[in-house]
Design a protein that fits this description.
Complex I is composed of 45 different subunits. Belongs to the complex I NDUFA7 subunit family. The protein has a two-stranded antiparallel ribbon with strand order 1-2. With about 110 residues, the protein is mostly helical. About 20% of the residues lie in helices and about 5% in strands. It has a domain of about 30 residues.
Length: about 110
């Protein structure tokens, strides 16, 4: 057998198949003998960042590592009122504070130190 030989059923089976189908058999496979030749040379592309795998570590290509917390663009400069004497004249100005309390943590916390 040569490499250019294409396998198919015998001529009797081909006639029976064409009669039962009502049309001739059209093979759906892309066999190289039935395709046009490709005389163009293979492209010579330059290597990219993933070309040499010896110096190409996975963590440098992982886009998930580039994700960071959102950046706060505008700082809030408004003063907040603290709990206390908000109705008094001078005390109202002194009761303005910029300190924040931490949010409570759910569950029991254990202090190691």
């Amino acid at each position: 057998m040569s490499a250019s030989y294409h396998r198919d059923v015998g001529p009797v089976i081909q006639m029976i198949r064409a009669f039962l189908r009502g049309r001739s058999w059209n093979e759906q496979l892309r066999i190289p003998q039935h395709l046009s030749p490709r005389p163009s040379p293979q492209p010579e592309l330059p290597g990219g960042p993933s070309h040499k795998t010896s110096a190409n570590h996975y963590y440098t290509r992982d886009a998930r590592r580039l994700v960071e917390p959102p950046v706060q663009v505008v700082m809030s400069t408004s003063k907040e009122l603290s709990a206390g004497h908000a109705g008094d004249g001078e005390d109202a100005n002194n009761s303005l504070s910029t300190s924040h309390t931490k949010a409570p943590k759910p569950g029991l916390t254990h202090r190691w130190d």
